[in-house]
Request: fold
Amino acid sequence: MLNVLRLAWLSSVRQPGRTSLGVLGVAAVGALLFDMLLLSRGLVVSFRDLLDRAGFDVRVLATDAAPLAGPRILDSGTVLATIGALPEVEAVVPISIRSVEITSGNAVSPTDRLERVQFIGADPQARPMWTLVEGRDLSTSAGTSRPLLVNRTTAARLQASPGSELSLRGRCGSTSSVLPPLAFTIVGIVEFPFDDADAETVAGQLLDLERLCADDQARGVDMLLVRSKPGEGAERAASAIQTANLGLHVVTNEELVERFSRVEFSYFRQISFVLATVTLFFGFLLIAVLLTASVNQRLGEIAALRAMGLSRWRVVAGVLCESVMMVGAGAILAIPVGAGLSVWLDAILRALPGIPTDVHFFVFETRALFVYGSLLAAASIGAALYPMRIVAVLPIAATLRREVIG
Amino acid sequence: MAIAASIAVTAQRAAGDATGVPPGVLLSRQLMESRQLRVGDVVRLSAEPSGARSRLFRILGEYEPTPDPMRFAQRRLEARLHLPDILALTRPPTEANAPATISSINVALVDPSDADSFARDLAVRLPGTIAVPTTAPNERTSTFAVIERFHLAVAVVTMIGSAVFLLALMLMLVDERRETVGTLRLIGFTRSRILMQVLLEGTLIALAGAVAGLLFALVMQDAFNRFFQWRYDTALIFLRITPGVVAQSLLLALPLGIGASLIASWILLRQHPLALTRR
Reply:
């Protein structure tokens, strides 16, 4: 076996230019293949991580419409009490998101579209779904009149910091514009997991949101976030809520991820599949052509080796090893190249509007590395088949004669 | 005036329930198919998830939703109602006497070039109103600009891979002619003449390759579109090879092919004729 490897190695280094170009070609193709494998599941993995980080594993909605795009849950108090009483449920938190406008502070001109921000109303005592960056959270702001959290974008635009005052007016129903604005005190600056780079989001108590949208109370809350009890799991909690027969749509994080993967994110999965297939075929073609041409140029030499006593399998195995060496070297080189390339491609795609800042399109998984290795190994073997056949059926005497005459 | 409504709809066959003449509604092909409805059927629509406060409508026709690249992965379960009907259907009981609200108004200007100034005037005269020319950049255009950048980046990487592949291939092809080139040099052919021949040959090969690639792409275009149209149940065209794309491909492929053959030949021609003939 060592002799076979040595033969393959010597054949490769004898033509360093060609071998280097082959390795470089495989590296370029491999880098793209590696990136497409990262892309195929990257968004789903990243989205699942984002959902899990919020600390809730079940979401309850009025219908199966996309979250925050469908009707709201009516009579939320009763629903909340019913779900909260279930033995499988540890906590249930209502969430409402409404549009509000800033009527004071360093807000820009009244005609500016950025004057409106998204207000997330949440239970101040529940575990927050955001990350505190500066100041205090809602739960530790007892005694503060109408505490408010703002994200960095809003804070930067308003030049606000914890302690600043802000007046907000709801833009929830048709009569919102005639309701008086309410004064809030900014208690902290936070990062919201689902914010995109330009999003202006604030969060406050659900009660305050109801006051801001006094004309909109009957419309209920947008979503209930449920955390299952440890040991029970999301599936059992979701099943218990469904059994309670509240006429609501219950979805676990897994189901939500599966749905997004199937519908919203499917474009990137499809495009990565197409590009990965094309890339792999291209890599296969590259190696097959290089090896075939290389073997064709060395037919006389191979026939001489066979005539000197080298067995058929050893020469054939040498061609296979040559292919594996070339692909292996290119594949190893492709990983750092692909990693760098994925950072660049990720930065391009993350400029898409509405993409949360914590979501990435290219996410590394050990599984991707395994699939990458398997695909390239298959390609290297497949590409070597034809040149191996040429070597295996090579007529020794006729080839040597042709070589001498030529 | 009809507007597209993305409301929670509970549609069911309700023929015979009608007491008067129900207002007309158009349903998307996808909704008709998923609920096995036919033109002339009477359906019950409601904006409430529970189906409360529903109203009867007669299906006047079926339509194919305008393909929307932003929503191609979503099933287009849609209905088109007359504006008074949708307002009556969606207005909450608590707002029964409140003024009607609509989400947007489309305005056709006498002179479309006035769109920007009209939008500015409107924003000043009606504070809180957002007026945007339809040609203004929005989320949709920026989405496609990003996707285009992504595809361009992938194309650049593919081109680099192709260039390396091509160079390796040309090196081997030229190397096969080592002795021929050496002989030609020995009988008096100049380097530039041999290079010109290689250049011509490289151009022809690059042209043939580019044309073959374009023909392959043209054949695949139809298969690609058909597959994705079937996969997503849409009339959207995913791939279209335009004259611009053809020109772009030729402009990239030809210099690449010619360049690869020139580089490979020059590497060989630099050597002494005797070395080429292995003497």
